[in-house]
Amino acid sequence: EAQVTQNPRYLITVTGKKLTVTCSQNMNHEYMSWYRQDPGLGLRQIYYSMNVEVTDKGDVPEGYKVSRKEKRNFPLILESPSPNQTSLYFCASSLKGSPTDTQYFGPGTRLTVL
Amino acid sequence: GQSLEQPSEVTAVEGAIVQINCTYQTSGFYGLSWYQQHDGGAPTFLSYNGLDGLEETGRFSSFLSRSDSYGYLLLQELQMKDSASYFCAVRDPAQAGNMLTFGGGTRLMVKP
């Protein structure tokens, strides 16, 4: 089954404790991205990757890191989480990131930073 | 900057028709997409308009007017399962990586 998976689905952590949210897709997509969703703000892009070893900042990259060592995986790293990073996070992928490509979203990771 | 405006909430009854509007202001424009998101779920793609006019997919239709920077999603024969949030999104070639920018979402409540 074609899908985007994320882990963990729920995470409660404390300020400053490094964490990684994994994302994997099995559709051989080149384009992957991370979004955060906050009430009334819709989805805002954090980082995206056009292909292996090619990553760039989205709208709200501060406090986040990503890597793309393999085509299927695109982990999101929070080196020193803060309470304002409490949010719902979605990983997404599309074939090449072209304008007509459909984005496929993972199930989401609800992160709480205390 | 980029901005997309849509109503925050819409309520309708089962069997009715509802229209969710979206106006956008972007540097460039490749097309308008619509996504549906049920509570606790992931956004899923509904439709895409690259050119002016109406696109129909079953009970859902989407319309675009590029000259007016405006589009809408039309849901017909509403069902309870249509209760969800609906997001319009624009892919802007002026943004690095053809970034997809989303509106704040419209929460649709369908009542019996």
List how many beta strands of chain A DSSP finds: 11
Q: Can you write the helix and strand succession of chain B as a string?
A: EEEEEEEEEEE
Distance between the termini of chain B: 40 Å
Shape of chain B from CA axes?
globular
Low-confidence segments of chain B, given as residue ranges, are: none
The major sheet of chain B is characterized as: 6 strands, mixed
Cα Rg of chain B: 14 Å
Count of helices of chain A? 0
SS field, number of helical segments of chain B: 0
Radius of gyration computed on alpha carbons of chain A = 13 Å
Tell me the fraction of residues in β-strands of chain A, as a range. Answer: over 45%
Structural commentary:
The complex is a heterodimer of chains A (114) and B (112). Chain A is built from no helices and eleven strands. Chain A is mainly beta. In chain A, β5 and β6 (54-57) form a beta hairpin. The model of chain A has no long low-confidence stretch (mean pLDDT 94). Chain B is mainly beta and 112 residues long. Chain B contains no helices and eleven strands. In chain B, the strands form two sheets. In chain B, strands 2, 4, 5, 9, 10 and 11 form a six-stranded mixed sheet that branches. A five-stranded antiparallel sheet of chain B has the order 1-3-8-7-6, with no helix packed on it. The model of chain B has no long low-confidence stretch (mean pLDDT 91).
